[in-house]
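It would be a great kindness if you could assist me with a short task in structural biology. A protein sequence and the structure tokens that stand for its backbone fold form the material at issue. I should value your view on which stretches of the chain appear to form regular backbone elements. The record follows directly beneath this note.
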Amino acid sequence: MATTMTRDDMSARYATDEMKKAAEKVPQFIISADGHVDEPPDMFDELPAEIRDSINRPKIMLDERPKGGVDPAVRIVDMDLDGVAAEVLYPTFVLGLFSQEQREQEAAFRVYNDWMADFCKHSPNRLFAIPCLATYDIDHAIAEMQRCNDMGMLGGLMWQVPHPDLPLTSNHYERLWAAAAELGQPLHFHILTGFNYFRFKREGLDKVRGSVNTKTHDIFTTVYDLIWSGVFDRHPKLKAVVVEGEIGWAPFLLQQYDYYFRRFTKPGHPSGDFAITRLPSEI
């Protein structure tokens, strides 16, 4: 007769000595570069009401969610069973808060970052969190990145699609690029982190477009803006990470970049005034 197990049953089973011994025999050689936590629904309950009530939060929370999303002890057992040596961790619904205004972002991200720092203290050599940065105010973003790095977190996650008044090609971010380079910490650009995301309900074809066309287009735009505006030429030690955006497009995109760089930098070409001086594929 077939039996079913709930998430709680599975979590309880993981806690047994038998399962722990089995996990010890699984080789750990995998690094999960894009893991996600499952933020507790009461995460922002202590924020002032005027901020808390304006934050976009899930309308539906599933009961039987994997316990490893909120309990680091269970997550470590899951990792052991899967042969995962370490995980780089990102938010889930907090990704949508990059569509919020400055006040909401700064308050919510600080709460999330503190929660994540505490989550990773359970196994600091295996759980690595990327803090969320609100970049309306660059002084605030730099201070928060430094604060989180001091707590053991790595780099910073910023919006992939910025506010239309603050494009990645502008001087607005210059001191953030410099600070991250000086710290030796990469800046991360995860899908669904956009000022224009989650502000409007998508219906019909637009629902699919957001997951297929829009996601890819936004990745291309981020990579293009960072490379062609000369960010890496001005800050050669800066590292950027594009997360959950697939990878098959990269060879084609770099081939196109190199082709047009060579074409447009020919002597006398009217479009040859670039901020970069080397092939994009070499950056």
User: Anything to note?
Assistant: The chain has one domain: 9-246. The longest strand covers residues 30-36. The radius of gyration is 21 Å. Residues 205-228 form the longest helix (24 residues).
